[in-house]
Design a protein that fits this description.
Length: 159
């Protein structure tokens, strides 16, 4: 039993922030008026973005050792929540308001928001940068919000 609790990494420094972010973002997803995305689109987006985020985590944090979340040897509850729901929820909220007239405005707003979240998670000590700089994330965020998610939106609307 002790090994299970230890593997959950409940004592991780700054764990409160990812848990708070997940609760707030999921509440926003559930209570926001659905404008440009359906419940089916939400379901698909959470799955696709969640999977993509976990693959990126295995590459960036596991294989390349660029960042660590919580304990470097365990994928605890904070890492599970962070990777599964923070990017997915942000993506759902972004797609809910995305249209051809506000694509770049939203891409900039959500890039800034994602940067602030990443910086905050590192500032409270939950995320440790080993061979990474927050500035490296900006082009990734811009690519995700300006290209990947609009492409994803077009695909799920055809489903």
């Amino acid at each position: 039993m002790d090994s299970i609790v230890k593997a959950m990494d409940l004592g991780a420094k700054g764990l409160w922030l990812p848990i708070t972010l997940v609760i707030i973002l999921l509440l926003v997803v559930f209570i926001m008026p659905k404008k440009e995305i359906s419940w089916r689109g939400i379901y698909v987006t959470i799955g696709v973005v969640g999977l993509t985020t976990w693959v990126a985590d295995n590459i960036f944090a596991g294989y390349l050792n660029l960042v660590d979340f919580g304990h470097p040897k365990y994928s605890g509850i904070g890492e599970l929540l962070t990777y599964s729901f923070v990017p997915s929820s942000l993506s759902v909220i972004y797609l809910n308001y995305l249209n051809k007239d506000n694509k770049w405005k939203l891409a900039i707003i959500f890039t800034i928001l994602s940067f602030i979240i990443e910086w905050s998670v590192a500032k409270v000590g939950f995320m440790k940068l080993t061979h990474w700089n927050h500035l490296y994330s900006i082009p990734i965020f811009i690519l995700v919000y300006s290209y990947f998610l609009p492409l994803h939106a077009r695909i799920i609307k055809k489903m």
